[in-house]
Amino acid sequence: MSTSLAADAVTSSPTGPPAVATPRPRRRRQRSRAAAVKLGVFAVLLLLWWAVTAARLVEPLFLPGPGAVWDAFVRANSCHPISTGVDRIVCGEQNYFLWEHLLASLQRIAAGVSAAVVVGVTLGFLMGTVKPIATVVEPYLNFLRSLPPLGYIGLLIVWFGIGDVSKIWLLFLAAFPPIAMATIAGVRGIRPTRVHAVQSLGASRWQVVQHVVLPSSLPSIVEGIRIAVGFAWTTVVAAELNNGIPGIGGLAYISGTQLQTPLVIACIIVIGLAAIALDALIKVVGGLLVPWHGKA
Amino acid sequence: MSEQTRPVGSDGDMSAVVTFDGVSKTYVTDSGDLVQAVTETSLTVQPGEFVCIVGPSGCGKSTVMDMLAGFHEPTTGEIRLGGVRVDGPSADRGVVFQQPNLFPWMTVRKNTELGPRLRGVDAGERRAVAERFLTMVGLEAFMDRKPYELSGGMQQRCQIARVLANDPRIILMDEPFGALDALTRERMQAELLQIWREKRKTVFFITHDVEEAIFLGTRVLVMSARPGRVVLDLPVRLGDGRSGPEMRSLPQFTALRDQVATAIYAAQGAVP
Fold first, then answer.
1. Would you say residue B204 has pLDDT above 90?
2. Beta-carbon separation of B118 and A193 below 8 A
């Protein structure tokens, strides 16, 4: 039994996404132009860096040239004599290759942020749905959120020792408040009519949570995780200040104390690039998880 | 307040009688003022009636709907469905909102079978129900699309299918076609009438469009602006073989339209 009008399908053109203001080829051209500009600016900055150091305007100890940084990077990833004219061969820096330092830090971030996702999302849901819990917990969450990680790393070392446990705790404590806050915002931001709609279909309290509250707050949670991972990167150097080898933050810190500025800069660049890559990865995974984000 | 009883759908389900018994609603605004949205209202709606509530914006017609849906509690009085007091939202009263309100993480099909799924109907059966109603509203080719891939009119049809698939005792519609363009709206009105004729379910339909109310309704309630109350309770009988758009040019149609419009203007004049 059909009361439909086939003509409607034509007028409303449901086959494609809604018309976009700029046609596709033009958009692509704009994007490639933007990429060219970015690349140009990068090249200019690199050239400037090289020129300043090559002209010896700055002492190389303070600012080594791009070549020295590249050499430090290569050295950190290969086996080489301990110093010129000495036969003893060492591998990487501080007995680990640079990628091993990076991997160690990534593992800590993964452990800390994973725990933060579990605790942050759970707490966020509780706080977003049960008002008294929010009233009681929110001040503590804000307090924790405003603490600089360096302030309490010492305490964590006393409690959990100098090994990985205290580092992972630090990363967890830095990462979970933004996830909890984002989850709360997601839960509280749900349109009441969405809840009404599912209730009028007969949903119980738990079914409302399962079918509407959870998926509705997913985009917000993904954003929270992105922010938390960013926080974790800024915290990783603090976490690895003590006994942080292997660890990219620890390596950056130790090389600084040993006046190996090229290696410090190489570490900073690697941290920055790794952070950008991880953020892009989360963005892609998040996009797969919530394909409706921004569309509905 | 006069009471109209019109047994339009004599084959209707008697457990679907809706009664408003001295129902009023008073809000407290943020500044602490009391606003009476709806004054004491009593009325009875028989199964199978198509009741259109018209009135100027802010007349409390949405408040009436919210109370009937169970989203808000009346300040005084009570609303009963089949003799049972309305207490919170339930699957008894299906609601079609002005916005399509579909869940973007589900396909059109999954959205439509959500009601039966919440009740634990097995997968095969609910799938069949969803397909039947999606076909009825002309979305059979779009069942595996996501809602945001559909036009506004199609999303609204999906919402209607979702409510029908849940087989509610009465259907509440809050300006469901308000956001659609004129052409789509007229088509949707015609389709809705056809569906109603088949199902003979009680429909409460809120609109500010007088023609829409007369075209669709078997009974038109005109509400005045704040404090909202029913100022006109008008039976509409334009013949049961009511067909298409040509009805709009019948003299009876224009007469009714003028009568309702006059009542609305009079009611608006009463705004302080």
1. yes
2. no
Among A3, A14, A200, beta carbon nearest to B142: A14
Is B271 buried (19+), middle (13-18) or exposed (0-12) by CB count in 10 A? exposed
% chain A with pLDDT above 90: 49
Task: Tell me: pLDDT of A9 over 70.
Answer: no
Neighbours of A145 (CB within 10 A): 15
Closest partner residue to A193 (CB to CB) among B97, B146, B184 is B97
What pLDDT, on the 0 to 100 scale, is given for residue A4?
A: 43
Average pLDDT, chain A: 86
A8 neighbourhood in chain B, CB within 8 Å: 138, 153-154, 184, 187
Domain boundaries, chain B: 1-92+170-272, 103-167
Residues of A in CB contact (< 8 Å) with B are: 1-6, 8-9, 11-14, 17, 193-194, 196-204, 207, 211-212, 215, 218, 290-292, 295-296
Beta-carbon pairs below 8 A across chains A and B = 113
Listed range (A34-48, A55-69, B107-121) with the worst mean pLDDT: A55-69
Pick the CATH number of B1-92+170-272 from 3.30.70.330, 1.10.3720.10, 3.40.50.300, 3.40.50.1470: 3.40.50.300
In chain B, the percentage of residues whose pLDDT exceeds 70 is 90
Q: Considering only alpha carbons, which residue of chain A is nearest residue B165?
A: A201
By CA distance, what is A214's nearest residue in B?
A: B105
Enumerate the residues of chain B whose CB falls inside 8 A of the CB of residue A215: 103, 105
Picking from B203, B209, B201, the residue whose alpha carbon sits closest to that of residue B180 is B209
Residue ranges of alpha helices (H) inside chain A are 6-12, 24-54, 66-76, 98-129, 131-146, 149-160, 164-188, 192-200, 205-208, 214-239, 248-257, 261-289
Beta bridge partners of B140: none
This model's pTM is above 0.80? no
Question: Given a cut of 60, is residue B6 above it in pLDDT?
Answer: no
